[in-house]
Specification:
By secondary structure, the protein is an alpha/beta fold. Helices cover 44% and strands 18% of the residues. Helix 6 runs antiparallel to helix 8 and helix 9 runs parallel beside helix 12.
């Protein structure tokens, strides 16, 4: 019997797109799936749409309705709690899977047994499903993805994959520390960093996700860059995690080896007042921790 795959879907006020997203999950060529939808306090018709599809596919769809909006991270954690599949993947309620997404990524993991999770590529679409652009990686970058070392190093520079393209063994999601609800715009980046420290993540060179860009997205209402900066510098204070990442890279955990990732953020956000201020603030906290002996480098 094929493995059960749990597709987790947080949703809030997605009446325009959720029907298409649900069907892209239901119509997977890997037929043994459960779709777990957590409605995070929707005020539009999203709940009625969910109920309609849940009644039509009662053997495929589970759902939870939350009266108060708690944010995407909290909704993801609720969905993970309900998931019973051997594998888990996350589909946003405005994005779409290709029909072979689940099948292709499970096949890749089975063929590459040293890996626990895999990500692939996406194309970006607009409100009317028109193609905008495709996420592509250079040949040199793809070559780096052949090892846990390359994934760890690249992630320290920033989040470079689409979260909905990740499929992983359930244990990778069902961690004691799941998505951090304190991060509103980079909860996924924080989660992938911690996942990469504990598990091996590989790359499948295939488009598996249609990622929708539209004006009503929550990510457009907050400064995701500010959250990314917080995630990175908070990671530097979590020495157990950062040391695991450096071990995967085969590098010593030293300030000299940390500096390129700090300098990258200084350069990346140059000219952006809020982000530059955030880097300075977080960097000062990090230097204070160093000065107070709270950072313990390898040498």
């Amino acid at each position: 019997m094929k493995e059960l795959v749990s597709i987790i879907m947080p949703a809030c006020n997605e009446e325009k797109y959720i029907a298409m997203s649900i069907m892209s999950a239901i119509q997977q060529t890997h037929e043994r799936i459960e779709l777990i939808i957590v409605d995070d306090g929707s005020k539009d018709n999203t709940r009625n749409i969910i109920l309609g599809y849940a009644n039509k596919y009662p053997d495929k769809i589970k759902f939870m309705f939350k009266e108060k909006n708690g944010g995407t991270a909290a909704a993801l954690n609720d969905a993970i709690e309900l998931a019973v599949g051997e594998y888990i993947c996350w589909l946003s309620a405005d994005d779409l899977y290709t029909e072979g997404m689940v099948e292709s990524e499970i096949k890749w993991l089975k063929e590459n047994g040293e890996y626990d999770a895999v990500f692939s590529r996406c194309v970006y679409i607009d409100e009317s499903n028109n193609l905008l652009r495709e996420l592509k990686y250079s040949e040199d970058f793809v070559a780096q993805m052949d090892s846990a070392s390359g994934v760890a190093s690249s992630l320290l520079f920033g989040n470079f994959w689409h979260g909905c393209s990740v499929l992983a063994k359930a244990e990778c999601f069902k961690r004691e520390e799941r998505f951090n609800v304190d991060y509103k715009g980079a909860h996924d980046y924080d989660f992938w960093l911690r996942m990469a420290a504990d598990y091996n993540i590989g790359y499948l060179d295939r488009v598996n996700v249609f990622s929708r860009i539209h004006s009503e997205q929550e990510s457009k209402k907050i400064n995701c860059n500010r959250d990314e900066i917080r995630v990175f510098f908070n990671l530097l204070q979590k020495e157990e995690t950062i040391m695991k990442l450096f071990n995967k890279m085969g590098k010593e955990y030293t300030f000299e080896n940390i500096k390129p990732y700090i300098y990258h953020r200084i350069g990346k956000y140059q000219g952006l007042e809020e982000e530059t201020g955030a880097v300075k603030e977080e960097l000062q906290k990090y230097y204070d921790s160093m000065k107070n002996g709270l950072i313990h480098y390898s040498n």
